[in-house]
Amino acid sequence: MSLTNSSLTDYFRCEERLAAFTIAGELSPDRGYFRFGPDTLCYGQSSVGRVARSFDMHLEDVSSVRSVNGAVPVLPFHPVQVADALRREQYELNLVPLREKLAAQEWVREVYYFVRNILPDFVRQAVQRAYFSDWKRRRFPNWPVDFTVDRLHEKLLALSMDAAGVERVPFIWFWPEGAPACLILTHDVESSEGRDFTPRLMDLDDSYGFKSSFQVIPEERYEVSQLFYRDIRDRGCEFNIHDLNHDGRLYRRREEFLRRAEKINW
Fold first, then answer.
1. How many CB atoms lie within 10 A of CB 10?
2. Which of 12, 81, 177, 236: CA 20 to 30 A from 153?
């Protein structure tokens, strides 16, 4: 049965006929790591060989077993599943450094946020540097930007074009009016002084043609009025809840978020 790779059509805005594929064989019951060529790591189910529990183990390269059924590529994995797992970080990192395992513990986070406001800036910065010390050396995900999903989509489109006998496809630029990139501009409003400076900061952004997002902490640090909210929104900026009091708890559990949501739903 022919399926549509919606991930590919979303990425390239290509015709659906170039995003058609079928799956060869029965996918493995478990998810794990494998390769689609030497430079593209995948996480998901595969119908070829065994999937690995860790990306540092020997990984099966499934690129050599792809085939074409008419004009439709046959793949040993589901490309949407793999792309989504990478994008949403649904993969398992079994070789996690001890400091990250500790940081994931509830009691460690509670202690950190309890003393966070009384820690000098240089201490907090030293803790952050220690936490991120080896990110540049990691094989996966690559830091600061991981291009695995991009490489996967490029390979899948090339395979589909080859199967369909298509040499060129229209390229739809990602940003309007030929802009080379996009910018997301955010401001964390950490204190009442920052809240009071917000109108001047919006004036400064406007002078450069920017509209920004203001990340507000509306519970204990300062009062957030309807007038403050409307001023930000009426000027075309985004009003976001960074946290209620910067204790890291608001978005940790859905139940906690719903319990406190009445303070942010105006």
1. 13
2. 177
